Amino acid sequence: MVDIHFLRPTAVQQRRGGGHSKLYDDIAAELWPPFIKFGRCSVQPAHEVDAMLAAIVAGATPDELRQLVRQLVAERKNAPAKLAPHQASAA
């Protein structure tokens, strides 16, 4: 089973070192992945935050960050297939 840890917006802001407005401006500019609605909460997978911060530290350009955001959001759509338990085939 795969463990996925989610971070609330406040935790993401603390990890990024910026404020609320900058975070949401970056989301609007597609420089940061959007949050996922999880019930009444907004969350972001911790591995996405890690990937974004690593790219920023590595000196990614805005275009490279946008590409990474698109990749991370696309991977969300494939996540259920990766997390689904494997069915034993009947012999």
Major β-sheet annotation: 3 strands, antiparallel
Task: Give the count of helical stretches.
Answer: 4
| β-strand amount | 5-15%
* Count of domains: 1
Radius of gyration: 15 Å
> Termini, distance in Å?
25 Å
Order of strands in the sheet with most strands = 1-3-2
Helices and strands, in order, run as: EHHEEHH
Average pLDDT across residues? 89
Helix amount, in percent?
A: 55-70%
Number of strands: 3
Structural class of the helix and strand makeup?
mainly alpha
Task: Give the overall shape.
Answer: globular
- Return residue spans where pLDDT drops below 50 for at least 5 consecutive residues: 86-91
Question: What does this 3D model show about the protein?
Answer:
This protein has one domain (6-76). A three-stranded antiparallel sheet has the order 1-3-2. The chain is mostly helical. The longest helix has 22 residues, at 62-83. It has helices at 9-16, 20-28, 46-57, 62-83; strands spanning 6-7, 36-38, 41-45. Residues 86-91 have low confidence and may be disordered. 10% of the residues are buried.
SSE inventory with pairings:
Blueprint: E1 6-7, H1 9-16, H2 20-28, E2 36-38, E3 41-45, H3 46-57, H4 62-83
Antiparallel strand pairs: 1-3, 2-3
Q: Key features?
A:
3-stranded antiparallel sheet; about 10% strand; single chain; 3 strands; 4 helices; globular; about 90 residues; disordered C terminus; mainly alpha; about 55% helix
